[in-house]
Sequence to fold (321 residues):
Amino acid sequence: MNTQDRQPLLEVRDLKKYFKSAGGTLKAVDGVSFTIYKGETLGMVGESGCGKTTCGRTAMGVYPKTGGLSLFDGEDVHAMDRAARLKFTSRAQIIYQDPYASLDPRMTVADIIAEGIDIHGLASGRNDRTKRVYELLDQVGLNTEHANRFAHEFSGGQRQRIGIARALAVDPEFIMCDEPISALDVSIQAQIVNLLIRLQKERGLTYLFIAHDLAMVKHISDRIAVMYLGSLVELTESTRLYENPVHPYTRALLSAIPIPDPDVELSRTRIELKGEVTSPIDPPPGCRFAGRCSKACDKCRTETPALREIEPGHFAACHLV
Ligand code: SF4
Fold:
């Protein structure tokens, strides 16, 4: 994929999101920059608590930013007035991690799915609204008879399908998929990922796909950004990341993925991360991975490595790369 020929849809520049805590300032997102191009999927991975969800939500304007910029189709997400924000939500949607918590138990499936249709006045009448809900149910692999049931009557995978239908209802261009498979059984995860891939092809969607499972992220992503404690440490095309990971943290993450070939799997060496995890509350200068990196040197503990382009389209933040 040549990103030079593609049009940016979401441009995030030096984005910061800090929270005041009793112990100091928690730097959940600390100077993150990336671009998502129309029609692509950018996977964002990292351990729990690395700031990936906060980064996505801040980029979408769900949280106010502390600093930096997030532009959606050239428009500052955090400077939108009410009307612009409403228009933005018809173009950009979120699928949430927890299909149990994100669906209102008092609403029927039809009303959950039609929420966006109602807010944006997309249906010409009651019949049109119902027709649209039925079409959406069909597109996500559910039946029209599901429309009048309640969310608690469904399995986790089915609830996530309802969440996807709800996001699709406004016919968006962009969807932030916020760990959409983390709460699901492994057997269901692939079904949901395959559904998202099919919908992307059919509708020309652009995704930010947040996950901690690198194996599944590879399957859906054109490019992958690896996040560690509030910063991006590596970003490149997904095949390149798997062939040639350069950041020690990415290498450790990849070494943990089981390989389907039993002979290769036997020779797989897992890189175990040892040492202290740096606190995100007023972190000291230097590389935030230094406490767990076997290659850390004096420079790593005093100078923060910048995210640099080390080959066309391949960025890494490490003094040794
Ligand atoms: Fe390791 Fe230093 Fe590179 Fe950080 S900058 S990943 S501590 S080698």
